[in-house]
Write a structure and sequence with these properties.
single chain; alpha/beta; two-stranded antiparallel sheet; 38% helix; globular
Length: 305
Amino acid sequence: MKVWLAYGHGAGKFFEGAAFAGMVLTRKVVRAMSARRILSLGSRLSALAQLLVATCIAIQPAPSRGDEKSLRRQDFVEIKSTADRTVRVLVVYPQVETPAHVVIIVHEDRGLTSWERRLADQLAEAGFIAIAPDLLSNVAAKGSGTDSFETVAAARAAIYDLKPEQVAADLDAVFDYARNLSGGDRRVAVAGFGWGGAQSFLYAAHNPDVLATAVFYGAAPSAEAMKRIKAPIFGFYAENDARISGEVSKVKGQMQAAGRDLQAVTYAGAGHGFFRTGETKDAGPADCKARSEAWSRLLDVLSGR
């Protein structure tokens, strides 16, 4: 059900063309209504619209919790990245009869949080093996991870101190693990968010075996790096995120010049991070709508549709 509210100057234009529950309020009907009745109906429709926004999370797809109450198997495993480094990785398995596609989730600049863990469970609920590495593994101290940092600011600072070579080596190790995972079909896609979106875009230039890459509001690599990309890149951008979305046209031109494919969608009115904020209880209508539409598109991308 959709509700359109149209406020004009004067009762004759109030709710012009509005529709509610199959009832159309034409100019003729509106003119016959008293100002009090019009304002009363307007208040009710406005309240209903606010209610629909407030309950947006209730109609989001894949509403799984991604915690200990999940019905899906969840494992934390240690993967050897380099001679002196291991990466802790969350693996969530779908309940399916045949080998599944695998998707690697590259987290935001907050590290591996409860949000990425929920997302991994949502993707597993949708039929994919979801793998979410903690790229802050053993950074603060041996055996540590994102949870070892006392504040989000501290985790962010550590993220931006990571060396690109280490991130690439970690993702290589995770990719090799994902491709050989029991229950997987050896086809591995990557989806990254914010900082992770930028890393995913860059990793596509590093690893030609990536099936597909979903970049959520992440910066693009250099034009030179784009020439090494083999798999299609699917961009998910926010309109109210000029730092990133303002570069989309330029990035598309660079990708085209390199003979590569960037399929970008910019979501109207959404802000940076909408895929996370759009499922919260206080989500704005644009972020909520963008999250729902982007979720459907992400499933299509990962399924190869």
